[in-house]
Amino acid sequence: MVGDVAVGGAAPVSVQSMTTTKTADVDGTLAQIYALAAAGCDIVRCTCNELEAAEGLAQIVPRSPVPIVADIHHQYRMALAALEAGVQCLRLNPGNIRKPEHIKAVAAECRDRGVPIRIGVNGGSLDERLYEKYGGRVTPEAMVESAQMELAYFAEVGFEDVKISVKASNVPLMIEAYRQLAEVTDHPLHLGVTEAGPLPGGLLKATAGIATLLAEGIGDTIRYSLTADPVEEAKAGRQLLEAMGLRERKSIDLIACPSCGRAEVDVIAIAQQAQAAFGEREIPLQVAVMGCVVNGPGEARDADLGIAAGAKRGHLFVRGTNVAVVPEDGMVDALVDWAEFIMEHGIERALERSDIHAAKSAAEADRGALFERKGADVNASGQRIETIRKLGG
Ligand code: SF4
């Protein structure tokens, strides 16, 4: 348990992030913690790098909506100070606090207070001795051994309330390290690709590492380490877990076709407008934006609600059934209206309130017109193939 958040076992995978404010700035840090919690973050880490930070934590922890982890790097005394401040978890980097008596003093204090520790191995700050032992390189084996050495110190004082991370900025290295770690320990694992970098590349790297492991059943809590507003980290973590079916959906799942030569509207613009209109609202429906009425309603028939463009108008559909026709510039507003209606009254009532017959006829008329205008082969592939064949003699 990190405060009231269970980590590991059958508990849902949790989302973590870290504040970027000075922890001594109590109001600034709390504002960021609240923003992170609103974006779906379950646990927040704050650095505890100086006494002023520990003093800040003493005021932050009782006012925080989520449990707080204190990040400790070099000074074991900061770990003791953070515990005194009431934090719900510590993160120790075994590469930075190396003296066994210091490690054991912190573990014994955590044992007495019932506070867990994350052993946070980092490929970039590995214990020198391990670095040399493994040929001057950071290897998965070296990272796993670092975690095991720390566990052994903890065991000496009878402490094992631990979760572990073996992060690296290199994705294949990080994946292999976690796989090896999962083989040798049953402790909950905290996943992350460290220093993943700015958007959008950082998102891709972090997702590649975290999602691969989650799909293998490895990982209990995750953090995206992005060079961006930490709220982006929380959103990304939350969205990944929702997309993988590991957390219940809280907000809209907007799907949209990639658009093609048949599109009757600017799908990218409409999808972005819809995304902005729904924002962070708690409407856990799947909503589709499709570029044409020829294929749109069929391809998105599993969506709760969707819109497909026809000739200067939009065809709304609910679970694949056409329910209404709206002007092109009212497509996004209509989506929001219908989504709100479904949230309040359910899918069945939404279908009952519509003139399905009229909506279906209108969609069919536009579908026919579109076929007539653009044909079945909108990208003119047939014509091109004919020409290519002629070139070949
Ligand atoms: S829904 Fe229509 S516009 Fe969108 S990709 Fe499919 S065929 Fe093209």
Quick summary of this structure?
The chain is of the alpha/beta class. About 45% of the residues lie in helices and about 15% in strands.
Keywords:
single chain; 393 residues; alpha/beta; TIM Barrel; Sulfite Reductase Hemoprotein, domain 1; 2 domains; 15 helices; 16% strand; elongated; binds iron/sulfur cluster
What percent of the residues sit in helical stretches (DSSP H or I)?
A: 40-55%
CATH superfamily of the largest domain: Dihydropteroate synthase-like
Order of helices and strands: EHEHEHEHEHHEHEHEHEHEHEEEHHHH
Class of the largest domain in CATH? Alpha Beta
Shape: elongated
- Counting DSSP E segments of at least 2 residues, the number of strands comes to 13
User: What's the mean pLDDT score?
Assistant: 93
Span of the ends, CA to CA: 74 Å
Count of helices?
Answer: 15
Output the strand order for the largest sheet: 6-5-4-3-2-1-8-7
Number of domains: 2
List the helices and strands and how they pair.
Layout: E1 14-18, H1 26-38, E2 43-47, H2 51-60, E3 68-72, H3 76-85, E4 89-92, H4 100-113, E5 117-122, H5 128-133, H6 140-156, E6 162-167, H7 171-184, E7 190-191, H8 201-215, E8 221-223, H9 230-243, E9 253-256, H10 267-278, E10 286-290, H11 296-299, E11 305-309, E12 313-318, E13 321-327, H12 331-345, H13 347-352, H14 356-374, H15 381-391
Parallel strand pairs: 1-2, 1-8, 2-3, 3-4, 4-5, 5-6, 7-8, 9-10, 10-11
Antiparallel strand pairs: 11-12, 12-13
The structure holds iron/sulfur cluster (SF4).
The site of iron/sulfur cluster (SF4) has 13 residues, from helix 11.
